[in-house]
Inverse folding.
């Protein structure tokens, strides 16, 4: 490929990358609106979130086709091919994050009214959503900048989401004896799980950032992959 052709390819890849990562802004908006459904029980908003997921799905399909077409037309190699391969996974993660917002709204549409005393469960879910929104946007910034350090820091925020998810589950167990509250609490554990999955997908985008930067794919260390306890290896545990 001539130098001019390579420069043109890089310009095309950068444009594809920007368009694909813009889907994360759509996801952040969906998270904001989904939390309005949680707080205000705004079911019209829930219907809007479900309908607007078509925008995220449409962007996924468009980006997917454009990436495959570029690979077939230009036959990129080395770093360029690695970036395009990573983008194929990133757009799939973005589409899944949008799906989780839809899942939350569908759960809320059938959930009963919350109890007078929810033991702070709603506040924990809101805190989870704020952290998931932060992860969503920061994962895109890290990928665009190929900033591995920023990508690895996503795990710290994801740890907060995981901790809150466990707290929501524990509160649901505490409410299980209340016949009027337990179905609502069960539904909220589904909401918390969906938010937790948004965070996980953001961390996955961070892992793709490290892959593009280094050429080696690795899973980050987070709450799902705890560090071994010192002495365990020596003890054969």
């Amino acid at each position: 490929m001539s130098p001019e052709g390579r420069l043109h390819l890089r310009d095309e890849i950068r444009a594809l990358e920007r368009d694909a990562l813009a889907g994360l802004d759509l996801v952040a908006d969906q998270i904001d609106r989904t939390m309005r459904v949680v707080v205000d029980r705004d079911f019209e908003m829930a219907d809007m979130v479900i309908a607007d997921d078509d925008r995220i799905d449409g962007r996924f399909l468009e980006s997917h086709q454009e990436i495959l077409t570029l690979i077939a037309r230009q036959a990129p190699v080395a770093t360029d091919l690695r970036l395009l391969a990573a983008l194929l996974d990133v757009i799939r993660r973005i589409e899944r994050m949008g799906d989780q917002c839809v899942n939350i709204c569908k759960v809320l549409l059938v959930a009963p009214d919350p109890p007078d005393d929810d033991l702070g469960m709603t506040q924990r879910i809101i805190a989870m959503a704020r952290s998931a929104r932060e992860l969503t946007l920061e994962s895109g910034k890290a990928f665009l900048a190929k900033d591995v350090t920023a990508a690895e820091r996503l795990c710290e925020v994801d740890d907060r989401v995981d901790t809150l998810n466990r707290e929501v589950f524990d509160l649901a167990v505490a409410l299980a004896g209340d016949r009027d509250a337990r179905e609502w609490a069960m539904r909220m554990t589904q909401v918390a799980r969906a938010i937790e999955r948004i965070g996980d997908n953001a961390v996955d985008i961070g892992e793709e950032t490290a892959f593009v930067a280094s050429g080696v794919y690795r899973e980050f260390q987070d709450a799902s992959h705890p560090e071994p306890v010192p002495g365990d290896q020596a003890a054969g545990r």
